[in-house]
Every structure is written in C-alpha cells, then in structure tokens.
Specification:
The complex is a heterodimer of chains A (347) and B (221). By secondary structure, chain A is of the alpha+beta class. In chain B, a hairpin with a 2-residue loop joins strand 9 and strand 10. Classes of the chains: A alpha+beta (347), B alpha/beta (221).
C-alpha cells in the first residue's frame, strides 16, 4: 500500500510537473518573469511593456494563474491571458471562438468542458459571476485540457488583483547563428533583470519544475508517501517479528546444524527484502491503477496524464528494498541472537 | 585433528541465576571413535551434558575440549557444530517446508560446497540409509522411521567426527528402533566415528561398549 501510495502520489506530482513543462514548450515560452520573493507572488502588469522594449525579446505576455471552484465537486486551474497573447497560438479551437478582452467570456479545455457538460454558447458561473463559454479548445498538455482561460482583466477582477499579474511569459528572438542556447538564455535573463529591478527572469524549464503549484504537489506527495512508507515499514517489521517468533524452533535447528548467526541474520533479512520487493511490485500496480483513476476523476483529470517513468519505478523498487532491509533489521538481529538450545525447546 | 577426542573438565551448568544446577563439576574423557551411552533418570543432566559436548550451549564453568582445543576459545561453537558434530534428535527436527533431500542439504549450506555437490551428497546419503526413493517427499509424508533416517543422513552431511544422538529412538516403534540402532552402530563402526547416545532404554544402553550413568548432575560410575 505504501509503495502504491508512493507511485500514485509521486507519479501524480511528476505528471503535474511534466504537464507544466509541456505547456511552456508548446507555447514557445523561453523565460518567465516572476517576483524575487516567495511570499509576494504578483508583479505589476506595467512591467510587461518594459520587457517588450528589450531588443532580445520577441514577445511578452502577462499571465495570471489561479485555482477556481467551478462546482462543489470540480475545481480547475484558471489562466488569465490577453486576447492577443502568443500563447493562444498553441491551442486548437474545437468549437466556438476565442474570448475578447474586457468581456465576461471564457474558453474551456476539452476535458473540463466534458466534465462540466458545457459547450460553446453555454453559461458558466465562476465565483458568482456569469461567463459565456465562447469556445472549446484542445491544448497540448493536461494542464490546458483541464483549464479555464479567461481575459486577463476578468481574472484580475475575480482575484482582486487589478493591475497585477502572476508572471510575464517571454518568447525570445530566434537564437543568433553560432550562439549557444544556454549562453543566450543567460544573456536574456541578465537584460530583463537589469530592466526590471526586484524581479527575476527564470528559464521556462526551471519555472515549470519550481513553481508554487508543483512545489505543493511534490511536498504533498512526498509527505503523504513518507507517512505511508513508515506504516509499511512497521507492517513488514511486525510480519517479520511474527515470522521469527513462529519459526523459533526452525532457527534453533539451523543453529544446531552449524549455521552461524550471520547466516540466520542474512536469511531473515533476505526474506524481509523479498517481502518488501513483492509488496513493492504489487504497490506499483496499485499506484498505476490509482493514477488511471485520477486521470478520469473530474477533480483531478485536468492535472494528470498517466505516464509512469522508469525512474519512478526504480525509485519505488529501491524504496521497497530499503523498507524491507530496514524493517528486517530488528527481527533479524533478534533471530540471530537466539540460543540454539532455547530455540529448540521453543513451543 | 587426527585424535579427535572429547574431554570435559569440571563442567558445570546452572540455570535461573544458579538456582537450578543441571551439571555439577563433571569430568569425562571420550576417545575418538568410541561408542558411549549416557543414561540416567529424567533431570539427571544427561541432555545438558550432550548439548555442551555438541557446542549447543556454553558451560557456566569448566571446559569442553575437542582434540585438545577448548570450545569457544580455540574453535568457535558454530564452526565446531558445522564441521565436526552431527546431531540426531528424538523429535527429528526436520524442516517441515523442505523435502527430504533438501533437509539433508541444510547443514551443507553453512559450508563451501556447490549446489550440484550438495545434491549429489544428499542423494548418496539417503541411498545409504535406504530412503532415497522418498527424497522428494516432505517430512509429513514420511513415516517416523523414515524421518529419523533422513535426520541421520542430515547429521552425516558434513562428514562429522562425532555423532550425538539425544533419545534417537524415543519416538519409534520396536522395529524402527532396532533398525535405527543398527544403522547408527554400523555407521560408527564403518566410519570410525565417535557416537554418543543419550537414552532411557536399557537395551540400547547395554548395546554400547561404554556406559556413563548420571544422577543429580554428576557421573555415578
């Protein structure tokens, strides 16, 4: 169960991070401009014009992120974009049309539209305000497929963030011939930060893995998994302690036949590791099944694409192995300490 | 270790913080290849003496010497049990989850021996004891006599110099008792092994060339 929780939760948070990466790469965003301080996550929208003025910048667009309750059961990521944002180019409109700035209009990702049973022309209530669904789109990542996109000014108003944005996304001029990508990126970052004192320019890839949503997802996943793992370790330790107790006479026989203490220790440890690994394999299957369920649940479907990477599987098996080793330590030590005579006379 | 004699000097063993004295200053010398029966009433200390002779336990005071080497000092007890001693118990003590041939291989897992070699040796021993046809059966599928023969095969697995048997016929009928004793005495004679049997049964004790009678933790004769 512990490994299942680990695969499910960490797999979920990894999928969430990958969705952010995909969203940035699909839109062609190279750099995100954010606040330097962690607690203050908004910046002035007016900074966008200063970024646009830099020769190295091709396009810059202000963005707001928020999480909105759409129904009591369904909440979704909401993006506030300008109607002329270059990021809209990565979306494929399935029906209807784009929203207009200053209008109470939204476009819905196909997944969220399906969950909400909405189509173009319908009305959607967001925090007491009525919006017209102007269109349905398909996005390159699960984060867009499950998202609501509305005019920047509308989301600023809903979030009480007039004149503020979460980040400014920047698309750079094409890479000059012969220049290295990372050098070019560092150069752009330096120019943006020089133009906007107090703000940070971070590569999109770094921003994808290092934003509040991903941080929260990773922290929740690892925190919950750690508790589950601790319970799992105690479970294996209890099983092994019972096994050693029930097989005390067998241990006595082995010791009487000349098995050394470390042979007994190794035997019990190997059993604990085998138990951990078997549990790990079952847990991986359970975790994968949990991810499949999360991928179709309305509450989480927008954040999950079921892809379990080999690294996560190796991590899960490694943790299962270590859990078995750790859980087997005390029972193995106690088994190895048994006196052959006392163990032989055990009922 | 050509002269693998066993010697005990001033051997005492007490339990429960000294309140129970199982052995009180026992001195005994057993030559290599000797056949000895240890007899005495229940609680006389004969099994405790056998356990100490086999390195299953450590004395409270006194020494056990094997080939003039003190157990626990010159040779560690695990190595002594593994390489020089074979045990046969009244309750057989076979592993219930292992087949007969696997049970015979268990002591060989503690010494360097290839899997093929182990299997070959186990089958050879089972054949010598007339139970090779039962090699793939579990202990629960064997008769009491067959189980004891598998246990004897297991005791011989690492070619020990000393065979220690604690009431080896206690759970057997008269036919199997006679068969088991015939096997043990043949093995002792043919291989020149030291055989020490703890028994209640007079017939078995009298068949041994040397008898050691115990009472209240001491040797009577």
């Amino acid at each position: 169960m512990a490994i299942g929780a680990f695969v499910g939760l960490v797999g979920f948070s990894n999928a969430f991070e990958q969705a952010w990466m995909k969203m940035y790469s699909a839109s062609g965003t190279d750099i995100a401009v954010i606040q330097q301080t962690f607690l203050n996550t908004s910046l002035d929208e007016s900074a966008t014009s200063k970024v646009r003025a830099l020769p190295i910048v091709a396009q810059a667009t202000p963005v707001i992120y928020n999480v909105m309750d759409l129904t009591p059961e369904v909440n979704a990521l909401a993006y506030g974009w300008k109607a002329d944002s270059y990021e809209l180019q990565s979306l494929h409109m399935l029906s209807g049309k784009l929203f207009r700035d200053g209008q109470a209009e939204v476009i819905l990702g196909d997944l969220i539209a399906q969950n909400l049973h909405k189509s173009a022309g319908d009305t959607l209530q967001i925090q007491g305000t009525s919006f017209t669904v102007s269109g349905i789109f398909h996005g390159p990542s699960a984060l867009e497929a499950g998202a609501v996109i509305l005019p920047l000014d509308q989301l600023q108003q809903l979030s009480s963030l007039q004149g503020k944005v979460s980040t400014i996304h920047v698309r750079l001029q094409p890479l000059p011939h012969g220049e290295a990508q990372d050098v070019y990126l560092r150069q752009a970052e330096a120019q943006i930060e020089a133009a906007l004192p107090g703000l940070r320019a971070v590569p999109a890839e770094e921003r994808a893995s290092n934003n509040q949503f991903v941080h929260l997802a990773h922290a929740s996943a690892w925190g919950t998994s750690s508790i589950a793992l601790l319970i799992g370790i105690l479970g294996i330790a209890n099983t092994m302690a019972m096994s050693v107790f029930e097989r005390t006479r067998e241990i006595g026989i082995l010791r009487a036949l000349g098995w050394k203490r470390w042979h007994v220790l190794l035997l019990i440890q190997l059993e604990a590791v085998a138990l951990g690994l078997c549990g790990g394999c079952v847990g991986i299957l359970l975790g994968y099944a949990a991810l499949q369920i999360l991928a179709v649940l309305p509450q989480t479907a927008g954040s999950v694409v079921v892809t379990v990477h080999a690294q996560l599987l190796f991590e899960a098996l490694g943790i299962a192995l270590l859990a078995g080793l750790f859980a087997g330590l005390l029972p193995a030590w106690r088994g190895a300490q048994l006196s052959p005579v006392e163990a032989l006379h055990h009922d | 270790m050509t002269n693998a004699k066993l010697q005990v000097r001033g051997l005492s063993k007490s339990y429960d913080g000294g309140r129970i004295e199982a052995l009180r200053g026992v001195d005994l010398s057993i030559a290599a290849g000797e056949y000895v029966a240890i007899t005495g009433p229940s609680g006389s200390g004969k099994s405790t003496l056998l356990h100490l002779l086999g390195g299953l336990d450590s004395p409270t005071s006194g020494d056990v010497l094997f080939a003039d080497t003190q157990l626990g000092l010159g040779i560690d007890l695990d190595t002594y049990r593994s390489e020089h001693v074979g045990f046969i118990f009244q309750a057989f003590y076979l592993m219930p989850t292992l087949r007969a041939v696997e049970n015979v291989q268990v002591p060989m897992l503690g010494v360097k021996r290839s899997g093929v070699d182990r299997s070959k040796r186990a089958h050879q021993l089972l054949k010598e004891l007339g139970v090779d046809h039962r090699a793939n059966q579990y202990p629960s599928q064997l008769s009491a006599g067959e189980r004891q023969r598998v246990a004897i095969a297991r005791a011989l697995a690492n070619e020990p110099q000393i065979l220690l048997a604690d009431e080896p016929t206690g759970n057997l009928d008269s036919v199997n008792t006679a068969r088991t004793m015939e096997i043990l005495t043949n093995i002792q004679r043919e291989r020149g092994m030291t055989l020490i049997i703890v028994t209640h049964e007079d017939d078995i004790a009298h068949a041994a060339p040397r008898r050691v009678r115990m009472r209240d933790g001491k040797i009577e004769n």
